[in-house]
Amino acid sequence: AKQQAGTTVLAYAPEMIQRARARLDIEQALGAAIAAEEFFLEYQPKFAAHSRQLAGFEALVRWQRPGVGRVSPADFIPAAELTGQIGALGELVLRRALRDMAAWQREGAQLLPVAINVSPLQFRDPQLADVILREAAAHGIEPRFLDVEVTETAAIGHLDQVLPQLAQLRAAQVGVSFDDFGTGQSSLTLLRRLPISTLKLDRSMIDPLPEPKAGAVVRAACVLGQSLALQIVAEGVETEVQAAESERLGCTHLQGFLLSRPLSASAAQALLPAAG
Ligand code: C2E
Ligand code: CA
Ligand code: CA
Ligand code: CA
Q: Does the beta carbon of 245 lie inside 6 Å of ligand 1?
């Protein structure tokens, strides 16, 4: 960088310029894509560990970008957060999930809980819990069929904003899942303070099973979860050995490619029992 009369001129390597352009491109396109609703949801089933019965779904957003194809949420969620568009995208995801659930219900299915991923930044909106409950009511969905998945970064530093909203959701019987447990700081204090109903053990904890040290860590997390009366989901289960180990160590639920990939809304609907 060179100083010139009070301005800074930065010299960028070509690949940095390219990366910046790609990001700018995605950011500009995101705004239009949100307006055009180019997003849809897939639903990955969660199963009870012992019976392997379907217990619910996690909604995962997909962007079908015209002329480009499928863009991964890992690519556009950070861009949406960076550009202040995550609130609008989050509302789109919420409404789409509720619309799909209402259709399942209308067509005679017995609902099971659907979890929605909520970005930490969405909690900056003090109305978030109100919006979730209002939209659920507007779609005729009982709050107990909704779950919000939050990462601990949602809570760190913003506990005063996050706590009352999670408490409001729990009081209305919306589930609250602590997502990606075992990554980051995984503060045990947060576990105690947040009104959560489910602990989701990150794939990085499950992947090395049945390695003994990995097993010891999963066991400890399960003992902690059990003593707080939480459901414990093993995420990213890819092998039968991982499934058996996760169950043996105390996980109550399993999710992962072994049991099911994320499914289209209609394929998810087909797994639901008929309303009695
Ligand atoms: P996540 O919440 O941890 O979701 C799990 C991710 O792991 C999903 O990837 C899922 O498809 C993938 N996965 C599930 N089972 C397996 C497995 O057995 N093996 C492997 N290798 N992967 C598995 P996806 O759909 O690409 O989502 C990535 C991340 O994007 C999510 O991680 C979540 O953080 C974020 N995300 C997805 N949808 C939304 C959304 O609607 N809103 C927000 N804010 N974030 C979202
Ligand atoms: Ca999640
Ligand atoms: Ca996760
Ligand atoms: Ca994750």
A: no
